Amino acid sequence: MKNVNTYHKLPILDGLELLNAQNNTVSFPYHSHDTFNIALILKHTFDTKLIDKHLHAPAGTLSITNPFEVHATPCDWNTGNSFFTFYVAPDVMKMINKNKAVFFEEKIIYDENLFKEFYFLSQNFENKTYVEKKLLQLLETLVVNYGKSQNFKNKEINLFARFLDDQITEKFSLEVSARSFGMDKYKFLRLFKHETGLTPNNYVILKRIEKSKILLNDGFELLDVAIETGFYDAAHFSKKFREFTGVTPLQYKTS
Q1: pTM
Q2: Three-state secondary structure string covering the chain
């Protein structure tokens, strides 16, 4: 069965979130997270496209992206990809690293024992006390063996992104946005992507989805969230939410 994805939110470690994706055929467009993404590759090669490289993680490895690191994940539309992702808050990693920021330069971790430990944890995440204690141990091993004590060298988001932040709930128009800066849409698109690593359209959608997660966690209904975050309707909202997160808003809300 394809696209059997489940999302889980645990009230531990600054809000640990988990995505269990089985035979997922829906590719993730360029986006970023405010967390470390630690993905266990369970079946088939897992591809990650960064701004400057294309990585291939075989089954049995860990694939890591740093907070705010722009990436895309193309999935095999025929067979699908299976993976289990831990979304870990930066403050947790910083605490483990003696209050120093952490950066993973090595994105694909070939460590059979560490993979097995993470996999066992992924199969027993219902036991919150056990998960918290064991995950802290595994993250410490990951940081000590593969991490660096430095911040992710993310491009500073300046004028264009701040402008769009004020337009998140409005109907987005590339032409109108470009005219606001006295330039054509092609130049605006090129400069915006250089500044953020994302297209203006993907940036707007990503910000809308980030806001929608907060509203969903606060108990708002799907239609209200869709309208509040600038989507056409609940169907359009659900489609885009799943495209960027791997699950529907309802799955996320009830997880």
Answers
A1: 0.89
A2: CCCEEEEEEECCCCCEEEEEEEEECCCEEEECCCCEEEEEEEECCEEEEECCCEEEECCCCEEEECCCCCEEECCCCCCCEEEEEEEECHHHHHHHCCCCCCECCCCEECCHHHHHHHHHHHCCCCCHHHHHHHHHHHHHHHHHHHCECCCCCCCCCCHHHHHHHCCCCCCCCHHHHHHHCCCCHHHHHHHHHHHHCCCHHHHHHHHHHHHHHHHHHCCCCHHHHHHHCCCCCHHHHHHHHHHHHCCCHHHHHHC
